[in-house]
Amino acid sequence: MAMPAQTMSMFGGGETGPPAIELRGVSKVFDTSGGGRYQALRDLDLTVGAGEFCAVVGPTGCGKSTTLTLVAGLERPTTGQALVHGENVSGIGSDVGFVFQNDAVFPWKTVLDNVLAGPRFRGRPSGQSRVDALDWLRRVGLNGFEDRYPHQLSGGMRKRVALAQSLINEPRILLMDEPFSALDVQTRAIMSDELLALWELTRPAVVFVTHDLEEAIALGDKVVVLTAGPATVKEIFPIDLPRPRTVQEIRFDPAFVALYQDIWHALRDEVDVAYSRTTTATVPVRGDA
Ligand SMILES: Nc1ncnc2c1ncn2[C@@H]1O[C@H](COP(=O)(O)OP(=O)(O)OP(=O)(O)O)[C@@H](O)[C@H]1O
Ligand SMILES: [Mg+2]
After folding, report:
1. Ligand 1 closest atom vs CA 67
2. Pairwise pLDDT comparison (76 vs 2), residue with the higher score
3. Domain limits at 189?
């Protein structure tokens, strides 16, 4: 399948370095508490170029979060290779930011101290870190909220803190696991636009997991559809919609609607498979992985 022009330019145009992320023939088998084994991923190949925005969709429980944990170094593949910038992932990478589905901010720290946590951990000089943190808080629209605690913020504001907390470290890779799923529809659209604007500032390679196909198409340079578990890549759809994009508006573009239909067609079958497993006695536990 043809790569999108934008992605081509990242690999081409004289850039010869390895992709930001590469999963090669990856499988992941978990030992379960009952002494069994559960295969979450099978023969999964995924490449994300430097600065590329890759959205990942797939039925619930198929293995999306597991895929992110392999890139982050939180888990190792059972077989196959997980590479970041051409190197085998051997631990939690300092170059990788992770925005979780649930709020992962420290409830006992102020907004400013939450954003400062990364630079402090990395031993950066505190004066400069403070300037940077205030800068990022301004960029995510939290100017004036530096001294608040997370419980004094709305859900959308807490997500902004989480974004600033990740982006201040200027990760070259940003992994996002359904980061906006707990937000209402309007806040979610606003946050998506803000994410795109922030992404343009430092251009990390992004893997963005979502259940929302519209969100995936509106944000991504490509949408990767995973199969029902154990997940493998079913199909990759380049999204050649122009940037900059406004997520609320782009969904009225006829090209968007056509993409939605194509991708939904691929995704629907997998959702049906996953759903049918929940309505029958068949549990996808495999001892033969
Ligand atoms: N540490 C683990 N031990 C055993 N099984 C696990 C472990 N982590 C994940 N799994 C199983 O692997 C499968 C894939 O899980 P994963 O969290 O990756 O799915 P997902 O696609 O992110 O689902 P959702 O869309 O609901 O977030 C699930 O059946 C899950 O129970
Ligand atoms: Mg998940």
Report:
1. 18
2. 76
3. 36-95+171-279
